[in-house]
Give the backbone structure.
Amino acid sequence: MTLGMSLARAIETGDVTVLPGRRDEDWRWTDLRGLVREIPTPAKRQPISGGGQFGGSNPIVLAGGGFDGVIADRSCGGESFVRFVALEGSQHATLGVDIQEGAQCVLLESHEALADGYLSAVDLDINIGRGASLTRIVLADDAESGVNVVTATVTLAAGASFAQTILTTGAKRQRFETRVTHPGQDAKVRLDGAYLIGDRRHADFTTVVTHAGPGGATTQLSKGAVGGQGRAVFQGRIVVEKGADQTDARMGHHALILSDRGEVDAKPELLIHADDVSCAHGNTVGNLNQDALFYARQRGIPEAQAKAMLTEAFVGEVVDRIEHEGAREICRAWVAEKLRGLA
Amino acid sequence: MLSIKNLSATVADKPILKGLTLEVPAGEVHAIMGPNGAGKSTLSYVLTGREGYVVTQGSATLDGEDLLALAPDERAARGVFLSFQYPLEIPGVPGLTFIRTALNAQRKARGEAEVSAPEFLKRAREVAGSLKIDFEMLKRPLNVGFSGGEKKRMEIFQMAMLSPRFLILDETDSGLDIDALKIVAEGVNALRGPDRAMLVITHYQRLLDYIKPDKVHVLAGGRIAATGGPELAHELEAHGYDRWVA
């Protein structure tokens, strides 16, 4: 993988001039060049115990980066637990995920922090074989002072499916970027996410889905809530290449702003070069329904609790779309807990 | 129970209530009737603390406690319940979850123990049965996609579950057919008691055939223009409000 202008390359080389910044169109709302003045020393690796957010047994733990992990699942029905643990300093971890033909796998991924002021870059290289499926569920619990950029490059074969849900509370700067090469040919992609952003936190969901062949489907639902002086960024791009007819793509992004100083920047893009396609996108940013809030308070629910309840219901639509029952309930509880801190 | 003295309030700087005085003792049901724009709904929102309804003078107390100084949820915990003219839809929150959250929040505010889930469900089944509400409906997001009549019935359901002390019914009859009206009225009547009082706001006398008031007040021009017994409602039905509208 070529690192280009990226946090990973800056960490590898110690050179801050290769950081992307606001002059780069795709990074203008998530400026790293202006934020990071120097690259801290590489993190010292340390043993980490426990199962992480998903409580899985034998998780792959990538703490402090510096080495590659590989999941090569040749069997069916596998659940893999991966924990990315940020330590003090800078770190770059990579993970290859190779799902063989016909296999059905679930990747339960958590991002955690054991330090402040760290830089972390994570690259996942995901290949999903013919007729195989991968569900990727991410819980991101970064430190308020941390910087974390997680990039997943996903390639699907014909008839494969990829379903992703990312739930995050952001960081000082945080970005989840997902780049999907979609072959069409009955392959299916679902890219969902929810952000719960408070304080001075920042989260960025950037997705690029390139439909390269005919007959593919993509559905996207991102929702979130921003309080405090938080900032959320959504950049969703769907490219339908010439000849990728019968592509069916739907993209939705809906945000709630809970405070005067919260900010949401959204850029949905459909770039369509084929004739016979069905593509749609919807984007809304608003406040909590004040009438509903008064109604709940009139019934005796205190303001903070009422806000959390209505926000949880709003974001809950994303959680409801998680098919893996165990993970769905863990995610639901996680969202409820984080919202108590936000409202 | 409820004591309102010389109450004035504005909405968007426009005076709506202009020195309203009203006493509703415990155990009584009072009806408030009046023409459109008289301030009936404003009164209900001022008493429940809705944002944008600004009290400029006067007082409102419940058993001597200053209601106007309390937040909306604190007033609810003291037993003030408003059945909304237009109940809100709450997407993503099942009716039962909403009501149990409200009930336990009120109990917590009063220093009482939470109601357990089995206890709550048992009571919910009983009340739903008496109001002819399909229990499955209570598992759906509150009021979402419900008809006007179903929403009104859900208001009475919530009222019965929360068992408030002071009830305000704002145009509860609107949107109800005669069968639904009877069911709702029965639900309301079941809550009548020596420790409770009610304020029934309505346009029409019809509702008062089913919820018999002890007193009827005419609200016109932002104040109580006349007070009488149930016969006043019939008189209004026959002659309209012209006498009191300047």
Summary: The interface with chain B takes residues 289-292, 294-303, 305-306, 309-310, 312-314, 316-317 of chain A (CB under 8 Å). DSSP finds four helices and 17 strands in chain A. The first helix of chain A runs from residue 7 to 13. The first strand of chain A starts at residue 60 and ends at 63.
